[in-house]
Amino acid sequence: MSTQEADTSSPGGTPAHGPLDVEQAEAALVEHYPRLVRIAYLVLPAALGRNRRVLSAHALVQRSLPRRRPSGSAVPQPRRAEDAVDPGYAWVRGEVLRLALRHRTRMPAVLPRVWGLRVFPRAGGTDELTLDQRLSELTAAGRAAYVLRGLERQGDAEARRVLAAAGVGDTRAALAEADSVEGMHALLESPEFDPCSLQARPTDLMRRRQHGRAALAAAVATLVCGALLGLPGDDWGPAGAAAPSYARNPASEAALDPAQLRRIDPAVWRSSARTDFSVWPARGGLTGDSALLRRALAVWARPGERVHASATPGTPPGPPMGPAQLLFAGEVDGSRVVLFHDGLRAVRYAEPVDGTGGPALDFARTDGADAAGSAALVLTRTSANVRYLTAPWVRTPALRDLLRPAKPVLPLTRDEHGVTDPMLSPAQAKDCSAWPVLQLRDERGERLYADLGELAPARLTWGAPGAPGDVTGRAAREAWARTACLLPAVRSHGVRSVNSWQYAEQRLPAGGGRAAWLCTRAETWRGTGARVLAQFQAPGATTGALAARSEVSPACGPREPRVLAGVLWQARTGQWYVLAAGTRDFVSLTTTGGVAARRGGRFLAVEAERGARAQLIGKLANGMRVAALR
After folding, report:
1. Which pTM does this prediction carry?
2. CB within 8 A of 411, min separation 6: which ones?
3. Residue 256 DSSP code
């Protein structure tokens, strides 16, 4: 079938269809619908709000088809080299961009509506929120240019052509504007910006019940969410930013009653058989503020549109299952902060003391936490700083720079409630000039914790997967100094702990000295989705080189400690080598592809050309063949 991609506009502003068939455009829309809706969602203004952006994005894509089949015949123009995409998709994408660029904040009445529900994409991490905020500061043309570059992988020349066809007058200015948002293109594929993978919450069910529509709304909500939990009514007093209540249920009402909150006595942890969040006492200057606690519980159960909610991966963001435990309530850094724990999750509610900004609600899974895993929680984040609430058994908190292992720790002061002074946090740092970590000492020893952008800081350990220890010795600290800059790869991933260990040391060819091979594994609170990084630390290098990474491999863990990885390395003589190393259970290593070689033992060093690509396979003593980590 001969087709042609339209790249000019008609005088009325509508792209000319040329010989493009309606059926062809419809087929492209159906095949690429999720991607087209994502493009529309990213280009639409953030002022619409997430619910209206979702609905508008779907509406724009569904209105992008040609209205009629073009009459007559046309000879298709030769297809250019840059037109690697399907012409039907390219045409529909151009129409979607044109409609999104012309969209205004006021939503026309013809757009689709979802009665009784607010729909919005799944919440991402801090990086996704930062990108969304940065994009909201751009013009629509700037957002479109950023999407064409980052999501569609188009060069500047092709991006300018597509923007011009969509009606952008100054395409160079749009690309220059997109240049102000750097290094975040990969996040455009995040669920944060996926309008086809949605969450739903109720809106105005009480009001619609008064108008006789409650039955239909309940049926729709049941289909989407399964069931609606009953929550207290108006007699509970002001609920702040919470959405309207929509049912009554005795168990739910008890869970939202501030008087029913569990408050642990400060001395319980000293004699308890458990040492975890369940024995944290209720601390803070506002633990007796029933109005604040009522607002926090109500927003937890039914967050309204003004609430900025987030949850670590695998953490259910639903209402409390029963009366929760109060950990903290107080005023910190210009916010009233409340921390709860319900046995499965730590929940933080924060509302500004002054100003009109909406409250924040954060969920983090913490089930199965032991004394080490429940040593601290993030209380507030302001600018580049973070404050922690420490466990009652913590004796002396301190600040350590992970990149400078020989530098003494700095003391970190706490108030009478266990709240630390602010310390620099690397959670959102754009470079790796420093990596401050929290050092906590108790009767069991000294531990390090890194802020990875979540409520619970991740514990750092060192040693073989079967029996990792704390990062206390010189060798462990020096190895972590060259590993710290790889931690952003596991940021905002629901990480519980990160263990690193040196599984091999290899003598380099051409008198290059001895290099270390390390494996770093980040375990999550949910038990799945662990991320594994293999790194090569050459002599004299300040940072380890990432040799391989995986999110599905059991390697480097207690169930399968073995690991194999390789790198392409250049000696001082200028000669390139393929280097590889495995754990002690490998008896031979083989490379195929661009470099063919076999070596006995667990090390390999083979001369290679610059840019060579090879496949690495290892053989175990039992004859089993194991591929390199990837």
Report:
1. 0.64
2. 396, 397, 398, 399
3. T
